[in-house]
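Retro notes (design track)

What went well: tokenization of the new backbones is finally stable.
What didn't: we kept losing track of which sequence belonged to which structure.
Fix going forward: every design gets posted as structure first, then sequence, in one message. First example under the new rule, 419 residues:
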């Protein structure tokens, strides 16, 4: 309760007591002025007592709430430290095993490069836990806070995106490499909701890189220069570990949700990367059923070539597959979707509405024969759901609700927020 509120309440008690003291003799002959003053004084004292008790209860509730939050944060930090220790032991065992194998095969240089990537991944995990610990400490002095590098605000992330349109690829790649080298990789989450209920069902996970001055490099920007580099694989490694941490946290809170995790086609074409990913997910059973591996902007034939060798292993590990921006409605192939075990198709709202308009499908005619109905029937046969993203306004939602869509994603339901 603020000082102004205290003053207002005290003034109210005093005015009430004074009013009673003045009016009491006029209301009853038996009440003399001294008795009226005494009654007014009792009103003031009683009000002050009630006010004091109420203020104390408020303070105690705030203290209890604060202690509960601190206890929950400390429990979460201890749990994350346990996860880091377990992952560190696992990485150490893998490094020792690979060192022995590389020594026997004479492949030390390749092992050193791979080990450096794993060490950076582990360091990123430790830094994340330390960041949570630092948030429990008192704020730094003003001069220290001014000197510290600023992390982009959750609400203002869009205004911090770097201007990469006129930037040379080599310059952008240098910024990406510097961000990875300094572990400036953030996990951003955007809600995916059911339609028309708009209930949270999944998250879309993004890796956002930060430059030295706090600007954000989005996946669309760094993918075009880093996909053919070892840097791209390192980003995917960190993204997977951050998603795993998120899933563990939601499982502990009994709020498990699916997390769409977009990885580079180049990484998924690397057999060693996929083997390590599958081993990691298999060793952490709580991840099963929660990771939705998303392959984006890749033709269906290329997707089949990349994922087909691992389809059975993905299924056994509990990893679900999603295809995003796969083309138009006519590009779908039921045999390919069934063979790969695809469980989600993601299309932009603009592409879906444009395809529907080009095919002459309107809200009144959509239940007749047509490619959209064919796609919906095919998705039902292969047990897959349709997710429409880039939903930015209510008008788009109104248009989309005329079609049988399962989930929606876009800034209308929530912008990507740094975690």
């Amino acid at each position: 309760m603020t000082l102004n509120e205290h003053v207002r309440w005290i003034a109210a008690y005093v005015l009430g007591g004074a009013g009673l003291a003045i009016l009491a003799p006029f209301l009853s002959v038996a009440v003399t002025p001294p008795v009226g003053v005494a009654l007014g004084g009792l009103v003031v004292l009683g009000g002050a007592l009630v006010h004091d008790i109420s203020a104390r209860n408020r303070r105690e509730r705030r203290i209890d709430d604060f202690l509960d939050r601190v206890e929950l944060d400390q429990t979460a930090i201890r749990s994350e430290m346990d996860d880091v220790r377990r992952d560190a032991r696992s990485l150490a065992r893998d490094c020792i095993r690979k060192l022995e194998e590389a020594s026997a095969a004479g492949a030390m240089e390749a092992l050193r490069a791979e080990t450096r990537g794993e060490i950076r991944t582990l360091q990123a995990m430790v830094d994340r836990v330390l960041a949570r610990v630092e948030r429990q400490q008192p704020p730094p002095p003003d001069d220290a806070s001014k000197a510290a590098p600023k992390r982009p605000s959750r609400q203002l992330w869009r205004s911090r995106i770097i201007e990469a349109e006129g930037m040379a690829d080599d310059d952008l790649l240098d910024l990406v490499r510097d961000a990875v080298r300094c572990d400036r990789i953030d996990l951003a989450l955007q809600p995916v909701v059911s339609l028309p209920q708009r209930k949270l069902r999944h998250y879309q996970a993004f890796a956002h890189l930060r430059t030295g001055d706090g600007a954000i490099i989005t996946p669309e920007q760094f993918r075009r220069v880093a996909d053919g580099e070892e840097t791209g694989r390192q980003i995917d490694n960190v993204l997977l570990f951050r998603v795993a941490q998120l899933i563990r946290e939601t499982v502990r809170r009994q709020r498990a949700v699916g997390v769409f995790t977009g990885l580079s086609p180049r990484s998924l074409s690397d057999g060693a990367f996929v083997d390590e990913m599958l081993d990691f997910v298999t060793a952490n059973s709580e991840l099963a059923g929660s990771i939705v591996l998303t392959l984006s902007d890749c033709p269906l034939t290329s997707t089949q070539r990349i994922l087909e060798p691992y389809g059975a292993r993905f299924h056994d590990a509990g990893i679900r597959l999603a295809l995003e921006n796969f083309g138009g409605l006519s590009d779908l192939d039921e045999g390919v979707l069934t063979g790969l075990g695809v469980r989600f198709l993601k299309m932009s709202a603009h592409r879906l509405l444009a395809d529907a308009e080009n095919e002459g499908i309107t809200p009144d005619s959509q239940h007749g024969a047509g490619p959209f109905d064919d796609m919906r029937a095919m998705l039902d046969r292969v047990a897959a759901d349709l997710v429409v993203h880039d939903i930015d306004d209510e008008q788009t939602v109104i248009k989309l609700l005329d079609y049988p869509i399962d989930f929606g994603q876009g800034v209308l339901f929530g912008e990507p927020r740094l975690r």
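Added context from the reviewer: The two ends are 32 Å apart (CA to CA).
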